[in-house]
Design brief:
The protein contains 4 helices and 6 strands. The chain has a 4-stranded antiparallel beta sheet with strand order 1-2-5-6, with helices on one face. Strand 1 and strand 2 form a beta hairpin. The two termini are about 40 Å apart. Keywords: Signal.
């Protein structure tokens, strides 16, 4: 039963991410593809990097760094324990020193990784956007979608 629940939650999460990427790509497509470079700047912002390609073509690169926790200490002992008093009421015992030790242990034994995500916008030799590619995290996709959704034609 737990496996089915876990599988359902994972499939829902994957579908949500796929849906977010799809609507973000639609907003980007309608908002910048076919537009001049200056309009792309006004709609998306200034890039972190501009790469020049063949014959005056450009690639505008918008980089996003995100810090992700990839591992943590599992040796943390519970610092708050519950017990019952004489009247049958729950009584909590908090060990402040143990909480401090746990926070210190977690800080020194947690492993982080920095992930570089990007939005690349392709500009041809006439200064017109011809396409894009992106692997942005969900929060950044939501940002661009909110910014560009007004350019999606109503059906």
């Amino acid at each position: 039963m737990k496996n089915w629940l876990l599988l359902t939650v994972m499939l829902f999460a994957i579908a949500a991410c796929t849906f977010q990427k799809k609507i973000t790509n639609k907003a980007l497509s309608h908002g910048i593809v076919g537009q001049k470079e200056k309009i792309v700047y006004s709609r998306v912002g200034l890039p972190t990097e501009i790469n020049t390609a063949n014959e005056g073509e450009k690639v505008l690169v918008y980089e996003v760094s995100e810090r992700m926790m990839v591992g943590y200490s599992k040796s943390i002992k519970p610092a708050v324990t519950s017990q019952f008093d004489m009247d049958g009421q729950r009584d909590y015992d908090v060990d402040v020193w143990q909480i401090g030790d746990a926070l210190s242990d977690a800080k020194s034994n947690t492993e982080y990784r920095t992930n570089k995500a990007f939005l690349k916008v392709y500009i041809d030799s006439t200064g017109t956007c011809t396409g894009f590619e992106q692997n942005l995290p969900k929060l950044q996709q939501e940002y661009y979608y909110d910014r560009l959704k007004k350019y999606i034609p109503e059906e």
